Amino acid sequence: MKNNKKTENLVILKKLLRYTRPYTFYLVFTIIGAIVSSAAALYAPVLIGQAVDLIIDRGNVDFEGMLPILIQLAIVVAAGAVFQWFMGYCTNILSQRTVRDMRIDAFNKLERVPLRYIDSTAHGDIISRVVADIDTVSDGLLQGFQQLFTGVVTIFGTLIFMLSINVGISLVVILITPVSLLVASTIARLCSKKFKEQAALRGKITALSEEYIGNQREVKAFCREDESEERFAQLNAELYRVGVKAQFYSALTNPSTRFVNGLVYAGVGIFGALSAINGGITVGQLSCFLSYANQYTKPFNEISGVIAELQSAFAGAGRVFEMIESDEEIPDTDNKTLKNVRGDVTLCNVDFSYTPEKELIKNLNLSVNKGEQIAIVGPTGCGKTTIINLLMRFYDTDSGKITVDGNDIKSVTRNSLRESYGMVLQETWIFKGTVRDNIAYGKQDATEEEIISAAKSAHCHSFIMRMKNGYDTVISDDDGISQGQKQLLCIARVMLAMPPMLILDEATSSIDTNTEMKIQSAFAKMTEGKTCFIVAHRLSTIKNSDTILVMDKGKIIEIGNHEQLLSKNGFYAELYNSQFKRT
Questions:
Q1: CATH number of this structure's domain 2-324
Q2: 505 Cβ partners below 8 Å, 6+ apart?
Q3: pTM score above 0.90
Q4: N or C: which end of the chain has fewer CB within 10 A?
Q5: Dist. CA 556–CA 570, nearest whole Å
Q6: Four-way CATH pick for 345-578: 3.40.50.300, 3.30.2350.10, 3.30.70.2330, 3.20.20.70
């Protein structure tokens, strides 16, 4: 388990270093800054020791010899400060650009993963990976790079300087060093596990918060506030428990390493004093040695402290790389595009299931000709929306094929396929931008006249003009616009694009009856000559469809127009008549 953890962290570190590769220039100058600033810090005690040795006795100080030493000391300290700042500057650029690239890759990945990933992963957890976990990586890189470089240089530099002064006292320092390494590795092992748990729980609590915030109406409508608070409190308590342990282990770093530092300093003081008494070293050299003892042990303290940040960064980076490296949507086999689409759609022996253990659609066959209006009805979970997902290639079939104008949709580009459809879903989506931008989302080069015409056709022109700035009004999904108004804007968006095929999935579910009648007339005009798939629960809205597919458990159990299905007195007739039954 221990070796697996080391291997996992090593793999994550290699991936992080790949992101720093474009900024090797800054990495090199960070190392140079660390070397020069550390060398300056190491050379200063030598000068101080030389100055101390010029203090011969009370009233007997060689000021003339001390002056050039003090000048050198001032230059060394100033150079160390400048290179320390320079190292921090390079480290900041290196880390910020690295995490910027990681965040770009993470977001771009979301554009390439199949919808299966988005549907099966809590949205709050995805947000946590893109935002919070990458911020954790940033903090770890900032502190880690700077302190690791200076720490390593300082440790080896002090050893070299101490060995050059007195080998015996240096061995005392070296023999106590393994204690520091043991303390650091033990704390790192304890921190790693807890910080990984903390990152995962942070993702869960973000997902839960996003879920409840986005559905507050439902929570309040069903009076589930207390249960929601209890569930949040349970998860928050677990995060608190893990967080306290992570911080506790992290907090062990400082006192533990300070204890080791005290041992080193005491050892140097005792052996150095004895050596000075016996004439082995001068008082100035002893002063220099004590300074080096502090400088030598300080990096162990800092490195041990940064271990907590690094372990947290590794945990966050692991979650980010897990998302970045997730399977992408199967790429288009070639660059063949759909052009001049007529709208003939065929489903041949189609099998599909979201999970292997739960069969949904089995051996589905359907042939739709250009201009036909196909309605799909059935109980919840029967596979209506799944057919839409397959037509648009949001999901690929497990077996069988779907063709458009005789072209297997797997042999054409997804973009050309999806551009051939216009979708109006039950779930509306309005992004933050002007009303004009929202309507023109599917046709960026639309003229003002075309946008206004589409809005009038969707019966939303009047309420748009009542807004403060009309079509220039900035709106968003949570801007106080009613659900029905959002739906009308989404309908206008599709009316503007006017693709050869349409998919209407409960498109008028959020619209009042009076407006729905107007929209139905607009739809009739819009769908004229176009292949149209309509998913509906209100069967009164599909009576004029050319063909109605009645589905149950992933299969078409009845097919025909409205009158034909009613005359069969079967499942459709039961569904239709149930709308008028009194309970």
A1: 1.20.1560.10
A2: 384, 385, 388, 423, 424, 425, 426, 535
A3: no
A4: C
A5: 13
A6: 3.40.50.300
Q: Which residues contact 469 (CB under 8 A, 6 or more apart)?
A: none
Q: What is the full per-residue pLDDT of the chain (583 aa) written as tens digits? A: 455 666 777 888 888 888 888 888 888 888 888 888 878 877 777 777 777 777 655 666 667 777 888 888 888 889 888 988 888 888 888 888 888 898 889 888 888 888 888 877 777 788 888 888 888 888 777 667 677 777 777 778 778 877 777 777 777 777 777 776 677 667 767 776 777 788 778 878 887 777 777 666 667 666 777 888 888 888 888 888 888 887 787 777 667 777 777 777 777 777 777 777 777 777 777 777 777 777 776 776 666 667 667 777 888 888 888 888 888 887 777 778 888 888 899 989 888 888 877 778 888 888 888 888 888 888 777 778 888 888 888 888 889 999 999 888 888 888 888 888 888 887 778 888 899 998 998 888 889 999 999 898 888 898 899 888 899 988 876 666 777 788 888 888 888 888 889 888 876 666 677 767 766 766 777 777 888 888 877 776 777 788 888 888 777 888 888 888 888 888 888 877 776 665 4
- Distance, in Å, from the CA atom of 152 to the CA atom of 298, rounded to the nearest integer, reads 11
Residue type, 142: L
Assign 419 to helix, strand or coil: helix
Contact 483, 428 (CB under 8 A): yes
What is the rounded CA–CA span in Å between residue 276 and residue 264?
Answer: 18
CA distance 63 to 60: 9
| Beta strands 55-57 and 60-61, pairing class | antiparallel
DSSP label of 350: E
In the three-class reduction of DSSP (H, G, I as helix; E, B as strand; rest coil), residue 559 is classed as: strand
Helix (H) or strand (E) holding 240: helix 225-251
CA dist., res. 519 & res. 491, Å (int):
9
The bridge status of strand 399-404 relative to strand 407-408 is antiparallel
CA–CA distance, 73 with 37 (Å, rounded to integer): 13
**Cα–Cα dist 148/302, whole Å:** 8
CB contact at 8 A, 33 and 87: yes
2 residue type, one letter: K
Angle subtended by helix axes 2-20 and 283-324, to nearest 10: 90
Residue-wise burial string across 477-514, b where 16 or more C-beta atoms lie within 10 A, e elsewhere: eeeebeebbbbbbbbbbbbbbebbbbbbbbbbbbbeee
Q: What is the 3-class SS of 491-532, one letter each residue?
A: HHHHHHHCCCEEEEECCCCCCCHHHHHHHHHHHHHHCCCCEE
Domain ranges in the chain?
Answer: 2-324, 345-578
Q: Are 150 and 144 in contact (CB under 8 A)?
A: no
Stated as kind and residue range, the H or E segment containing 456 is helix 448-457
- Whether residue 193 contacts residue 309, with contact meaning beta carbons closer than 8 Å, is answered with no
β-bridge pairing 547-552 and 373-377: parallel
The beta strands (E) that lie in 325-463 are given as 345-352, 361-368, 373-377, 399-404, 407-408, 421-424, 433-434
